[in-house]
Amino acid sequence: MAGVLEPGDRVVVTEDTVTRGSSLLEAANVVREVGAEVVGVVAVVDRGGTCASLLEPEGIPFFPLVTAPDLGFAYEGA
Question: Domain residues of the chain, as ranges?
Answer without folding.
Answer: 10-71
